[in-house]
């Protein structure tokens, strides 16, 4: 635990599922020395796909990034935790929210929300056309 309190520290969500954990490496940096936003976006897309996979029961694709907010930079060595929850299930699409928390290398045990996003995925058939999501 850090000796100086982090003003951005917050608890991890309890109403969402932990779907991915990853540590960014130096090769993932941008010219400023922070983790490249595109790398974070790719990880969010992977994390966001976990819950739709359970519902789609077959092929699906990212159809929209409805919102993407970078709240704080991600640093090399951060332990990133990706939490997700289903916001809406339609006839062919599923919208999910993903929140990303960083546990900084220098302040283990403290978490800071660094990114949040809302993405929509659509179930597709073998030809890439939308198909109905199976009802449970």
Please tell me about this protein's structure.
This protein has 2 helices and 5 strands, in the order E-H-H-E-E-E-E. It is mostly beta strands. It has one domain (about 15-125): Thiol Ester Dehydrase, Chain A (Roll). A 5-stranded antiparallel beta sheet has the order 1-3-4-5-2, covered by helices on one side. Strand 3 (about 80-90) and strand 4 form a beta hairpin. The mean pLDDT is about 95.
Summary, kept brief:
The chain is mainly beta. 14% of the residues lie in helices and 38% in strands. It has two helices and five strands; from the N terminus they run E-H-H-E-E-E-E.
Chain-wise SSE layout:
Blueprint: E1 17-22, H1 37-48, H2 50-56, E2 60-70, E3 79-89, E4 93-103, E5 112-123
Antiparallel strand pairs: 1-3, 2-5, 3-4, 4-5
Q: What are the main properties of this structure?
A:
Thiol Ester Dehydrase, Chain A, mainly beta, elongated, 136 residues, HotDog_dom_sf, HOTDOG_ACOT
- The CATH superfamily appears as Hotdog Thioesterase
What oligomeric assembly is this protein in?
A: single chain
Average pLDDT over all residues: 93
Q: How helix-rich are the residues, as a percent range?
A: 10-25%
Global Rg? 16 Å
Query: What is the distance, rounded to the nearest whole angstrom, between the alpha carbons of the first and last residues?
Result: 44 Å
Shape: elongated
Strand order, sheet with most strands: 1-3-4-5-2
* Low-pLDDT segments, ≥5 res: none
> What's the CATH architecture name?
Roll
Q: Mind telling me the CATH class?
A: Alpha Beta
Count of domain modules: 1
- Helical region count? 2
Element-level helix/strand string: EHHEEEE
Portion of residues in beta strands equals 35-45%
Tally of strands: 5
Largest sheet data: 5 strands, antiparallel
Q: Structural class of the helix and strand makeup?
A: mainly beta
At the third CATH level, what is the topology name? Thiol Ester Dehydrase, Chain A
